[in-house]
Amino acid sequence: MAISENTPDIVTAAILVIGDEILSGRTKDKNIGHIAEYLTALGIDLKEVRVVPDEEDEIIEALNALRARYTYVFTTGGIGPTHDDITADSVAKAFGVPIDVDPRVVEIMQRRFQGMELNEARLRMARIPQGAELVTNTVSGAPGFWIGNVIVMAGVPSIMQAMLDTVTPKLATGVRMQSETVVAHAREGDIGTELGAVAKANPEVMIGSYPFFDGTGPNTNLVLRARDPSKLSAAKAAVEAMLADVKAKLGR
Amino acid sequence: MAISENTPDIVTAAILVIGDEILSGRTKDKNIGHIAEYLTALGIDLKEVRVVPDEEDEIIEALNALRARYTYVFTTGGIGPTHDDITADSVAKAFGVPIDVDPRVVEIMQRRFQGMELNEARLRMARIPQGAELVTNTVSGAPGFWIGNVIVMAGVPSIMQAMLDTVTPKLATGVRMQSETVVAHAREGDIGTELGAVAKANPEVMIGSYPFFDGTGPNTNLVLRARDPSKLSAAKAAVEAMLADVKAKLGR
C-alpha cells in the first residue's frame, strides 16, 4: 500500500458517506463519529469526510478525488439489493474495471440465505468489481469489498462496525497520536491570546480549544495532540503554566 | 441571490463542517443532521457535506468548490477566540477580500461582554470579511456572517441552531419536497427487483429503500419523495400494488 505523505509515520484516511437519506435528514449518520474515533485509536489520521447523494457521477467524482489524496478511503452505504444501491457499480466505474456477479459471494449467500430465493435483487448484492477482495459481513451475510485503497462497507451501523473490525488487521497504521486534555477553568476569551503563543512555540503539538458550559458557567477544554510523547508533555506543562499566569493576572 | 440551477424551483445547499475535533472523533457532530432536516423542511435540497480540518488551504479549497456548485454553503465551526479558529480569515481569502476587526461587532461585544476585557483573543471574534452581513448570535453574542452565498456559523450546536433560525427568513427556498413512507412488511431482497421497476416507471419520484429490524425480523421502509403531489400519490399507489403482488406471489 503506497503511503501518500512524505513522512512514513503518517497514514491518512477519508470517509465517503453515500446516501440520500443522510442528506434529507431522515437518517442521522452514526458512522462518521465511530470511524473517526476508531481510526484515531489505530493511528490513522482521518483528514476529510464527504457525504454525497445516491448519484453515480457524484460518487465517482468524490471517490476519485479522495482516493488520490489519502492512504485509505472508507465508504459507507449503497450496497443493498435495491435500485438505489449503486455504490459497487460506481466504484467499478471509478476504477475503470468490469463488475459482475461474483461466484464467491453467490456461495456465501447460498449458504446464508437458505430458504430464501436468490433472486435478481439479492444477486445485486453479489456484484463486486473485478480484482476486489471481499470484506466479510458477520452480521447479515452480504459482504463489502476492498479495491485499491478503497474499502466499501454497509451503511447500517452494526454491519459497518463489524466490517471495520474485519479489515483492521490488514490496515497499515501510523505512529499513534497521543492526546492530553487540560480543563482550563477559564473562559476561552480570557486565555486565547496566551494559548496562541503556546501553540506557536510548540509547532509539533496540535492544540485545540473547545468551549463548554459547566455547572457554573463558561469553561474550556484544551486538547493537545502529538505523536512524540516528550513534546506533548512539554506543551502540556507550558499550557498549565500559562493558565496559572493568566489566572494570577486576572486575580483568580 | 443567484440560483445555480436551471429550474428555478430548485434551491441547493452544501454544509462545510470545519474542525479537527470532528475528524479525531473527540466531538461527535450534531449539526449535519439538524441542518439537513431543517433545509429539507424549508424546501432547500442539501446536496453535499464536507468535513475538513482546521487548515487554511483545506478550508479554502472545499469552500471554493462548494460555493461554485450550490445555491448556499453553510459552514459550522472555527469562529471562536483562539488560534485554531481560522474560519473567518480563510473565508476572506477564498473570496479575495480584506478582513479586519469590524466596528459593528466590537459594539455588540462591548454591550454584551460588560466586565470582561475586550482583549486580543476576543477581538479575533470581531474579524469579519469586508462586505459581509452579520448573523446575529442570540446565545453568546459573537456573531456569524453571510458573504456571497456562504453563511458562516458557530460549531456549538445551540448557537448554530439559533444562527440558522436568524438567517431563515432571508433564504430563497424552492418548492418543498413532499415525502411518503410505506412500511413494506417484507425483506428488502424480496421486493428489490419489483421496486426497481416502479422507480423506473416513476422517474420524477425519488424512491429510497431502507432496511431495518422490527420486533419480529427484517423489514423495509420505502421512502418516496417528489415535488409534485399527484406524481407522489401515483408512485405510492404503484408501490402498494407492487407489495400486494409480491406478497401474493410469495404466498403471504
Name a few traits of the molecule:
2 domains, disordered N terminus, three-stranded antiparallel sheet, homodimer, 252 residues, 9 helices, six-stranded mixed sheet, Alpha-Beta Plaits
Report on the structure:
The structure is a homodimer of 252-residue chains. By secondary structure, the first copy, chain A, is an alpha/beta fold. Chain A folds into 2 domains: 12-170, 3-Layer(aba) Sandwich (Molybdenum Cofactor Biosythetic Enzyme, Chain A); 178-250, Ribosomal protein S10 (Alpha-Beta Plaits, 2-Layer Sandwich). The first copy, chain A, contains 9 helices and 11 strands. In chain A, the strands form 3 sheets. Chain A has a 6-stranded mixed β-sheet with strand order 2-1-3-8-7-6, with helices on both faces. A 3-stranded antiparallel β-sheet of chain A has the order 9-11-10, with helices on one face. The N and C termini of chain A lie far apart (54 Å). The model of chain A is unreliable at 1-7 (pLDDT under 50). Chains A and B meet through α1, α2, β2, α6 and α8 of A and α1, α2, β2, α6 and α8 of B.
CATH topology of the largest domain in chain A: Molybdenum Cofactor Biosythetic Enzyme, Chain A
Task: Report the sheet-strand fraction of chain A.
Answer: 25-35%
Count the helices of chain A. How many? 9
Mean pLDDT of chain A: 93
Inertia-based shape of chain A: elongated
